[in-house]
Amino acid sequence: MNADRINYINIALMIFSCIIAFILPFELFLFSYGVLGPLHYLTEIGWLHKKNYFTKGKYDFLFLIGLCCVLFYYTYMDRSKNGAFFADLVALGVFFSLIFVFIKDWLYRGALAVLAFIVVGVMNNTQDYFIWIGIFLPTIVHVFIFTWAFMLFGVLKERSFSGFLSIAVLVICAASFFIIHPQGLNYTVSNYVQKGYFQFELLNFHLINMFHLDTLNDIKQVFVTNSGFIIMRFIAFAYTYHYLNWFSKTSVIKWHQVPKKTLIFTIAVWLLSVALYAYDYNMGLQALFFLSFLHVFLEFPLNVVSFTGIGKALNFSSKSNP
């Protein structure tokens, strides 16, 4: 499958996701997160492992897994830590990824790791630290900004019209939710959907207040206000396309080229995950929490590589076109 065809398929997937997000935003998110999400985690982690997680050390990924284990422990086993500690672990994951991508010498790595702890300690006292690092970074930044960067990195390498068009359509679709406010949908969020979305309410609440779309006092207002629907459409679109983008590029990324036993195991775990979500959505969220955050942490080095590649490509373009 050539690059142009993949790009046009992605444009169609964006438009499709955008339309459904306008009509049934909460339902679309819950479906995408519960059905597409687990398969994405499993296949991406396997693909990243084949790529040595884009780091210079063979066992660097173990540090990121360790951070994720600590995060899981203090989320479900011991809730004595506050939200800032949760954000500290995410921030350390990003800083360690920067070190793992660029530095090979262990002496420099050790010095920079100490510096990372100091920087995180300083950041811990800044305003809205938990919101930006603990809530936004592993969620909406991961699925929208990092997906955009991954796409742009590829487009700058291939430099095709269809590739740049796909980037433009992504931005237009995302912007449409804040510009177009349909009045005749008569959309009501059911109690079942509200219960399933319980663990994500903070994301919507803080996005609405942080970007001054509204002034909400009660977190449950995200289910009944126009600003709540606007931000939910954007979130549903971002998550759905994040997953679809991954699967649409199977022929390029080749994440499916794994031993047969691995593929069977992946499908079995995925089917079990979907069954858990179908039985009790919140049970599924708890059971898949570690896997969900593990794929976020293990992807940080790839995110670093994507932004580095974008910078190099833009710098090369500026030098070649004085």
Word description of this protein:
This protein is mainly α. It has one domain (3-315). Helices cover 79% and strands 0% of the residues. It contains 13 helices and no strands. It has helices at residues 3-23, 25-50, 60-77, 83-102, 106-123, 129-158, 161-179, 191-196, 201-210, 226-248, 250-253, 260-279, 281-320. Helix 4 (83-102) crosses helix 13. It is globular, with a radius of gyration of 20 Å. The mean pLDDT is 92.
Number of helices: 13
Roughly how many Å apart are the termini?
35 Å
Strand content: under 5%
Q: Strand-and-helix sequence, N→C?
A: HHHHHHHHHHHHH
Largest sheet: none
Write the layout of secondary structure elements.
Elements: H1 3-23, H2 25-50, H3 60-77, H4 83-102, H5 106-123, H6 129-158, H7 161-179, H8 191-196, H9 201-210, H10 226-248, H11 250-253, H12 260-279, H13 281-320
Helix pairs in contact: 1-2, 1-7, 1-10, 2-10, 2-12, 2-13, 3-4, 3-13, 4-5, 4-6, 4-13, 6-7, 6-9, 6-10, 6-13, 7-10, 9-10, 12-13
Which terms would index this structure?
mainly alpha; 13 helices; 79% helix
Short characterization:
The protein has 13 helices and no strands. The protein has 322 residues and is mainly alpha-helical.
